[in-house]
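Sequence, please.
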């Protein structure tokens, strides 16, 4: 057999295999693109499942319940706690939200008065803007309905994931070659631990920031302190941009009182975020990958451009999971720190 025949027999199968692998990657990328909204909802379900499984751990340890029973009980207790909290603060929150919605237009008028004849004033008074807002009302109503449906899907998917987490993990592991399954399982477990640690730290940060803003704005004498605190706590889930957006209502309200109040209010938000960044975040980073703020910012822009506002909300946990996976699969082996599997 000539060298040309040998080369032909070895080169052609390798070329076919590489071409088939490339075609499979292209098909997978196209599927991921067209199914991106379903994948995003699935990731939201993964977050719900992580919360349920974490809450079920002490129940399994302190009661004779099995895994599924503990998950059911954890879900019930979380639902009851949320219902009780909402029932406790909803009357005050509704009243203060109404006060906030009444006060913000006056604050915007104050801003326009300070700025004078500017682009902001022209934009706010233009008929084109009013027409656009009217046109958006129908789409906003449809978006509310879509959000309700998506939330229901996320909760149901999270319940299924939480009931049998190992089944779904092993299903993903079975997609890779048997020689790589043990390592893949260890990498997925590490990503799950990182997500769980980040969520725990983020919940602490949200409650702390919300309580600090509520107390601080109440001491300053701003209207609707509870509403401002709830806004700040919820937006703390969105890194980098969330705290900036959360400060805008409080600063605008302070402008309607006096320039001194505006300075004090801005200082309050800066102080709260500094305490959160220098005291709470280091505790979180002890158990989860230290993702640089620039990476979070780029993730918000890139993920938000693909998934919209839902992607912005979930960009932080998605970035944490991706950062842990990239570190375990590429960065650690490249730098000689490959310790998987454990």
């Amino acid at each position: 057999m000539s060298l040309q025949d040998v080369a032909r027999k070895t080169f052609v199968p390798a070329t076919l295999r590489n071409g088939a692998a490339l075609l499979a990657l292209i098909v997978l990328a196209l599927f991921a693109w067209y199914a991106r909204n379903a994948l995003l909802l699935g990731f939201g379900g993964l977050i719900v499942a992580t919360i349920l499984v974490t809450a079920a751990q002490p129940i399994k340890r302190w009661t004779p319940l099995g895994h599924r029973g503990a998950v059911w009980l954890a879900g019930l207790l979380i639902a009851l706690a949320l219902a009780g909290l909402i029932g406790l603060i909803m009357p005050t929150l509704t009243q203060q939200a109404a006060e906030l919605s009444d006060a913000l237009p006056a604050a915007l008028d104050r801003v326009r008065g300070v700025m004078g004849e500017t682009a902001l004033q022209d934009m706010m008074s233009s008929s084109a803007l009013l027409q656009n807002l009217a046109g958006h009302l129908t789409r906003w109503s449809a978006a509310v309905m879509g959000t309700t449906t998506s939330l229901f899907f996320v909760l149901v998917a999270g319940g299924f994931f939480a009931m049998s987490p190992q089944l779904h993990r092993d299903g993903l592991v079975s997609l890779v070659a048997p020689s790589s399954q043990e390592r893949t399982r260890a990498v997925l477990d590490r990503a799950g631990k990182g997500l769980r640690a980040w969520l725990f730290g983020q919940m602490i940060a949200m409650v702390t920031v919300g309580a600090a803003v509520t107390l601080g704005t109440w001491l300053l004498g701003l209207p609707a302190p509870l509403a401002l605190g709830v806004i700040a706590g919820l937006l703390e889930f969105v890194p980098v941009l969330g705290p900036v957006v959360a400060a805008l209502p409080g600063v605008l309200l302070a402008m309607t009182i006096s320039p001194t109040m505006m300075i004090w209010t801005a200082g309050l938000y800066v102080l709260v975020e500094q305490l959160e960044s220098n005291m709470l975040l280091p505790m979180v980073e002890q158990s989860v990958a230290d993702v640089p703020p620039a990476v979070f910012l780029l993730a918000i822009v890139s993920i938000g451009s693909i998934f919209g506002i839902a992607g912005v909300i979930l960009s932080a946990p998605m970035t944490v999971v991706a950062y842990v996976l990239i570190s375990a699969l590429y960065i650690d082996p490249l730098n000689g720190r490959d310790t998987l599997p454990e």
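The chain is about 85% helix and 0% strand.
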